[in-house]
């Protein structure tokens, strides 16, 4: 073929197309060849150091003894070591002391989010915003008191406020009058508030008593909010007529905070108390 080569002296393969299109046999550039050999070397070194080649039963382990699960475990151990330090401190402190310690309360707030999500969010909402029949935990309006101790007690022992149904005791216009006074934010302005015994549980001024978990009726924050196309007046009238947790009234509102004392550890309850306190600007 050499004699037919129209480009003598050129390092081509002797393949030609369209007169002058031809395949050359130049060696690849030097830098490329160096990269090529280095990558072969890399594979060899790597396969000696790290797990690489499959064998019939398993694979070559590499002289460094590195494993993916080992790397993961190391990470977990590091996190655990940091956590253990906090957890140990928490075990020996009261919820109030944890709250007072800036670092610990920040740790608690971050680490107890999952606890809140798993145990409380179904009723109180993911951010503690509350829901139909479930009080909001993000405001500073408390049925049972917002001190860290009260909150801890609420979570440990549960709560069940009881308001007797008044539908059979009051005339419809009396229910109306009381409901209107409450919606106006001045329950005590209605003489019925005293006459019909509301003050026994809600206090003279209607601001509620935390020992009974009776709601503050003057602050325009409602524990039972209107549902569907109900007006606020309707929903207040409903509470007055059918009460809350009144076993003798089938239409009574149901509202029970379950107790967690037998389900969660003391430390978890302390943490949740701190979380709830911080959510709601406890007091
Ligand atoms: C099954 C629903 C349910 C679950 C789960 C639940 N709660 Fe409650 N919670 C309630 C109800 C209902 C009330 C109101 C009780 C009442 O009206 O007396 C309440 C009240 C409270 C209160 C008192 C609020 C106040 O204004 O004084 C706190 C604090 C609270 N819950 C925290 C929690 C925490 C923390 C968890 C998770 C460990 C939790 N709850 C899980 C239903 C629930
Ligand atoms: C035996 C005690 C008791 C008596 C008497 C009582 N209440 Fe209540 N009331 C409660 C409790 C406890 C709650 C809160 C229940 C809960 O949240 O679980 C409540 C809640 C309410 C609510 C709901 C407030 C909200 O935030 O949604 C209204 C309205 C109300 N009461 C009005 C009255 C009126 C009016 C009277 C008098 C006719 C009255 N109550 C008498 C204990 C009582």
Taking the sheet with the most strands, its summary is: 2 strands, antiparallel
Number of strands: 2
Shape: elongated
**Could you give me the name of the CATH homologous superfamily of the largest domain?**
Cytochrome c-like domain
Q: How many separate domains make up the residues? A: 3
Sheet/helix structural class = mainly alpha
- In CATH, the topology of the largest domain is named Cytochrome Bc1 Complex, Chain D, domain 2
**Alpha-carbon distance between the termini?**
100 Å
SSE sequence, one letter per element: EEHHHHHHHHHHHH
Which spans of ≥5 residues are poorly predicted at pLDDT below 50?
A: none
| Radius of gyration computed on alpha carbons | 37 Å
Query: At the first level of CATH, what is the class of the largest domain?
Result: Mainly Alpha
The percentage of residues in β strands lies in under 5%
Strand order of the largest sheet: 1-2
Number of helices: 12
Task: Kindly state the percentage of residues in helix.
Answer: 40-55%
Summarize model confidence as the mean pLDDT: 92
Bound molecules: heme C
In words, what does this structure look like?
The protein has 283 residues and is mainly alpha-helical. It has three domains: 2-49, no CATH class; 71-159 and 259-280, Cytochrome c-like domain (Cytochrome Bc1 Complex, Chain D, domain 2, Orthogonal Bundle), CATH 1.10.760.10; 172-242, no CATH class. The chain is built from twelve helices and two strands; from the N terminus they run ββαααααααααααα. It has helices spanning 30-49, 68-91, 95-100, 102-111, 113-119, 121-124, 148-157, 172-183, 191-195, 198-202, 232-242, 266-280, and strands at residues 12-17, 21-24. The chain has a two-stranded antiparallel ribbon with strand order 1-2. Helix 7 (148-157) crosses helix 12 and helix 8 packs across helix 11. The longest helix has 24 residues, at 68-91. The protein is elongated and about 120 Å long. The model has no long low-confidence stretch (mean pLDDT 92). The structure holds heme C (HEC) (2 copies). One heme C binds at residues 143, 161-164, 166, 178, 182, 196-198, 200-202, 212-215, 217, 222-224, 236, 239-240, 244, 255.
């Amino acid at each position: 073929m050499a004699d037919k080569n129209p480009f003598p002296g050129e390092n081509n393969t002797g393949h030609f197309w369209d007169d002058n299109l031809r395949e050359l046999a130049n060696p690849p550039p030097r830098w490329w060849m160096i990269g090529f050999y280095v990558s072969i070397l890399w594979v060899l070194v790597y396969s000696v150091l790290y797990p690489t080649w499959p064998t019939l039963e398993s694979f070559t382990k590499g002289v460094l003894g590195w494993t993916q699960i080992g790397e993961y475990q190391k990470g977990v151990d590091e996190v655990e070591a940091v956590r253990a330090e906090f957890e140990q401190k928490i075990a020996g402190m009261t919820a109030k002391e944890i709250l007072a310690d800036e670092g610990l309360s920040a740790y608690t707030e971050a680490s107890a989010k999952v606890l809140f999500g798993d145990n409380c969010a179904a009723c109180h909402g993911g951010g503690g915003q509350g829901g139909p029949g479930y009080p909001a935990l993000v405001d500073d309006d408390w049925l049972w008191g917002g001190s860290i101790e009260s909150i801890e007690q609420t979570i440990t022992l549960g709560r069940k406020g009881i308001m007797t149904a008044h539908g059979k005791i009051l005339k419809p216009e009396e229910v109306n009058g009381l409901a209107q006074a409450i919606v106006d934010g001045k329950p005590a302005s209605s003489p019925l508030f005293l006459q019909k015994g509301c003050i026994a549980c809600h206090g003279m001024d209607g601001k509620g008593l935390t020992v009974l978990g009776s709601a503050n009726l003057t602050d325009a924050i409602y524990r039972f909010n209107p549902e569907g196309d109900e007006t606020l007046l309707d929903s207040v009238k409903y509470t007055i007529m059918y009460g809350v947790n009144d076993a003798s009234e089938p239409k009574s509102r149901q509202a029970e905070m379950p107790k967690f004392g037998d389900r969660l550890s003391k430390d978890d309850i302390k943490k949740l108390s701190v979380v709830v306190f911080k959510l709601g600007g406890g007091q």
